[in-house]
Design goal:
Elements (H helix, E strand, L loop, with lengths): L1 E2 L2 E2 L3 E2 L11 E2 L12 H18 L6 E4 L3 H4 L21 E4 L17 E4 L4 E2 L5 E2 L16 H7 L27 H6 L2 H4 L4 H7 L4 E4 L10 H12 L8 H13 L3 H19 L4 H10 L10 H4 L7
Parallel strand pairs: 5-10
Antiparallel strand pairs: 1-4, 2-3, 6-7, 8-9
Helix pairs in contact: 1-6, 7-8, 9-10
Length: 312
């Protein structure tokens, strides 16, 4: 399996001297290299940003990712209204996997991953002021988690603080979302619902912007077509069971995707974006992208053409 960054102007992200690459090859599976989780994505993105800062510092860069859950994952200590106790609790914290100082997962004598608890970050009131979620030093319950009732009450909502803790399985009645349970009320609070992903925070800390594509729209991400082109080339290599051969073939297949082809793939994705902006649905956008395959943009009168076609 492979992961990499790509630009329609420069191709696969490489250093200008060609000695450094951002592609990552790994054997996916529990008994192999594991899976490409959010932690690996963050490390990969950090490497890409370092490459860009070194060789392309004169450009403005925007990272575009698809809407996968591994991309949208928030930090472990991010605000979340799920599984919070309603009343003060001295031991509550967010359960996470314990890791060593070098970021590796820790395991116990039985081979199972060790767990630890971390505190949740503070919230923010509507006026922008910080709201600690744990009682401060000097309080009779110093260090305790305040509980949802106290957190809601501090926000000025006395009636909502009297609601039950959480609806069964968090399946709240649709018509009562505004006042069915404390969990749903906090879930809809701006600071709980609008938190940034770990990927956004990592990129913004280094001055890079991040955009996420809509769900289920792989046609908007031209790297998908580049993967398809590389796979087609990969299948042309002789079969082998040697890891070294498979890795070499994978790298050669990726390098075989020409910059000219990347330009064409990007323009195709751009046509789909333009089609959706003009109000076309998926079937209409596919028809228009094929009909105007030689154009970067669709004509302004594209909607009138459907009067003479059977595309709906």
């Amino acid at each position: 399996m492979a992961a990499d960054f790509i630009s329609a102007d420069y191709g696969w992200l490489r250093s200008k001297d060609g000695t450094q690459s951002t592609h990552v090859l790994f054997r996916a599976g529990k008994t192999c290299d594991g899976y490409y989780t959010n932690n690996e994505i963050l490390q990969h993105t950090e490497s890409a940003m370092s490459n860009l800062e070194k060789d392309y510092a004169d450009k403005d860069h925007i990272f575009i990712f698809d809407n996968a859950t591994t991309h949208l994952k928030r930090p472990n200590d991010a605000l979340s209204a799920r599984h919070l106790p309603k009343n003060p609790n001295p031991d509550w914290g967010i359960t996470v996997t314990a890791k060593s100082t070098d970021g590796k997962q820790l395991h116990g004598p039985d081979g199972k991953a060790l767990k630890t608890k971390v505190p949740m970050v503070p919230g923010h009131l509507l006026d922008g002021s910080v709201q600690p979620l744990y009682f401060p030093a000097g309080h009779i319950k110093a260090g305790w988690f305040k509980g949802m009732a106290t957190i809601i009450r501090e926000r000025g909502f006395e009636d909502e603080a009297q609601l039950r803790c959480e609806c069964p399985s968090f399946k709240c009645p649709p018509r009562r979302w505004a006042g069915c349970c404390c969990c749903r009320f906090l879930y809809n609070q701006p600071d709980f619902s609008e938190g940034l992903s770990a990927l956004e925070l990592t990129c913004q800390a280094r001055g890079f912007c991040v955009l996420f594509l809509p769900k289920y729209h792989c046609e908007l991400n031209f790297i998908e077509q580049c993967w398809g082109c590389a796979k087609r080339r990969y299948h042309q290599f002789p079969s082998s069971s040697k890891g070294s051969d498979l890795e070499r073939n994978m790298i050669e297949a990726l390098d075989s995707v020409m910059l000219e082809s990347m330009h064409k793939y990007f323009i195709r994705s751009q046509r789909f974006m333009d089609a959706y902006q003009k109000g076309l649905n998926g079937q209409q956008a596919a028809w228009a992208a094929k009909r105007y395959h030689g154009h970067c943009m669709l004509p302004e009168a594209i909607m009138h053409e459907f009067d003479n076609e059977t595309i709906v």
